[in-house]
Design goal:
This protein has 396 residues and is mainly α. The chain is built from 15 helices and no strands. The longest helix has 29 residues. It starts with 12 loop residues before the first helix and ends with a helix.
Length: 396
Amino acid sequence: MEKQVFGRFTPSPMSFLVLASIVMAMAFAGWTAMLNNFAVEAADFTGANMGMLQSLREIPGFLAFTAVFILLVLKEQTFALVSLCVLSIGVAITGLFPTIYGLYATTVLMSIGFHYFETLNQSLSLQWFKKDEAAEKLGKLLSIKSMAALGTFAVIWVGFTWLQSDYVWMYLLIGGAGLAVTIFMAMTHRQFVAASPQNKKLILRKEYSLYYLLVFFSGARRQIFMVFAGFLMVEKFGYDVAEITALYMLNHVINIFLAPKIGSWIGRIGEQKALTVEYTGLILVFVGYALVESAQLAAVLYVVDHIFFAMAIALKTYFQKIARPEDIAATAGVSFTINHIAAVVIPASFGVVWLYDQSLVFYFGAALAACSLLLSQFITPHLRKLNAAEAASNSA
């Protein structure tokens, strides 16, 4: 039994992940929502500066495999708290450095905390959740993240619209709130013991090859969505900041209600069927981006695209089912690095393609989704093979 603190609040692995998800979503949503305006209005950014900033932001994700070396000296739960502190501090001080290099520096600091935490968050979730409940609980955490992000957007809107706040105080408020919640977590949550001690070395296993490939293609598709889908809305259809923000908020409202249901649905039908639906839908969405001529239809595609991201829960639960229990932490870092390989290449190279023909970018996205669809058909046979091997081992 866990000891109750602060009235009825009882610390648990789930409460740790809930509070951590709130801090991450709140800090990152606040940073993202104000970034473009702050960069232009305060730091005099050009398009070239923004491209450099986005590349710098992705470097810590590419280096996420180094988390396994830090785990030689820090426990995962402690490392997660340190990462949230770094993320929160990076966001809090952003407004204090309104220069090109100042924003570069605070972005890298924020990104280090963000990417290390995301790596650890996946690892801890898969270690603490049972296999039959993981999909549903990951869906609930995704819903909680959306609520936190939506609340942050509302605070920023009120701050700039009614209170005439400035960037310095708004960044300090959001980052400071994240830091306060992280300190609360450190004070109230003891170290929770995972079922299996984790390997503290880099691990690449042949039996995880299908998972590695799916993660790589997922990262490539995500970059096309993150970099070019929103840019299409602005450049081709003339969406302004308020309209884009409204789309963000709509996406989060939908996720609040839909993500838990998607998690439960994945738990019922299995990973292969869920990913088949996701990748088939993404092929249609990317082809739609390539052909769309209506601003309203483009907005629908953007929202549907975001909904499909919730189905990526199936990729995590698939790994949980195939992974050796002691490999989860080490493989989380490796998979995050694999996921970010495309982040180093796609924004710059596809930006050149964009200048030639915007549609080609999205047709390539459809091709990536088709590759994922083909690969996903091997999930169930792989799981059956592993289950048969395990049954044979247990009976021997």
